[in-house]
Write a structure and sequence with these properties.
18 strands; globular; 6-stranded antiparallel beta sheet; 5-stranded parallel beta sheet
């Protein structure tokens, strides 16, 4: 496991927001305050007998120090995390780590929030903050139906919220040309939801001319892995070198850089193992990385940042600042 420090929390409240989404309020077991956080933050949660670690966005109003609120979708293809979470009841204990945030609000004049399904969780916190500060925003919340949409009581009569359900008339579905439109100065777009929703919203926004710098995203699962290019680039193994010691390790085709580092006793931070949380980010000192993460911006990649858990190398040797 990573070197993350953990604290024990108690489930002080639990309710079902939909048949598949459970909401949990968590408080420290010792009664002390929890960490402060900004909208868009998520926490690592360790749950179940297997001590599974999963990431969940904080969806309660920022500024509350005594409790955190998370919402968990019962995934049909669960690897065990959501199933273990849904088995929790009031009074149960688990462990969480301090919030991390790579999906925060920017300093834009206007904010367009696009949520698909359980992707409402970080965007709800953003909307609550913008309501508090008087920020200019609009939230578009998409779900299969009303019965599958969480937090309707807070959202359905809100003047800055539009609800889109798949079982509505076609004209009521999310339409990026109508609901987001052409790029506007000092406007930021935030997108969170399942893979299909993310691909549609981000792809359509790019077609409408929105620059990558204005599009902010958070995925709950990794996008499909990249395939090797026709010339073989991206296939096969390579050598990872540590700049601090000069040590070199072979990374085979079927293992990640992170797998190899940990197997050789190298202390490397990590959490999700999918290239979506940002905990493992390091800097490339030499070589050409093959970026396969779902979190770094183009600017961060150009600066040499790299995710050992998911990305690989296009060059025979990749030197990392470790």
């Amino acid at each position: 496991m990573s070197t993350t420090s953990w604290t024990d929390v108690v489930v002080v409240a639990r309710y079902d927001a939909t048949p598949r989404i459970a909401v949990f309020d968590l408080a420290r077991a010792d009664g002390a305050d929890l960490w402060e956080y900004e909208p868009g933050a998520h926490i690592d949660v360790e749950v179940g007998e297997a001590a599974l670690v999963r990431q969940y966005s904080l969806c309660g109003p920022p500024g509350l120090h005594k409790q955190y609120r998370i919402a968990v979708l019962d995934e049909a293809t669960s690897r065990g995390g959501s199933r273990a979470m849904h088995a929790l009841t009031e009074g149960d204990t688990l462990r969480i780590a301090a919030p991390r945030n790579r999906f925060g609000l920017t300093s834009a004049r206007r904010h367009l929030l696009l949520a698909g399904g359980i992707g409402i969780t970080p965007l709800l916190s953003m909307a609550q903050m913008l309501d508090t500060t008087g920020g200019d925003y609009h939230l578009h919340y998409c779900a299969r139906s009303r019965s599958e949409a969480a937090f309707l009581a807070e959202l359905e009569d809100h003047p800055r919220v539009t609800l889109h359900f798949d079982d509505q008339a076609p004209g009521q579905l999310l339409d990026l040309r109508r609901d987001v439109g052409a790029p506007a100065p000092d406007t930021a777009v935030y997108v969170c939801g399942p893979g299909g929703f993310m691909d549609y919203a981000l792809g359509r926004a790019a077609e409408l001319g929105w620059p990558a710098s204005a599009l902010h995203k958070e995925r709950f699962s990794a996008a499909p892995p990249a395939v090797a290019e026709p010339d073989g680039t991206g296939a096969g193994g390579f050598i990872v070198r540590l700049s601090s010691t000069g040590a070199e390790y072979a990374v085979p085709e079927d293992q990640s850089v992170l797998d190899v580092l940990l197997a050789n006793g190298v202390e490397a931070p990590y959490s999700c193992g999918q290239g979506i949380c940002g905990e493992c980010i390091v800097r490339v000192r030499a070589g050409e990385p093959d970026h396969r993460d779902n979190i770094l911006t183009d600017e961060e990649r150009a600066e040499g940042l790299f995710t050992p858990c998911s990305s690989r190398s296009r060059s025979p040797i990749l030197e990392l600042e470790l």
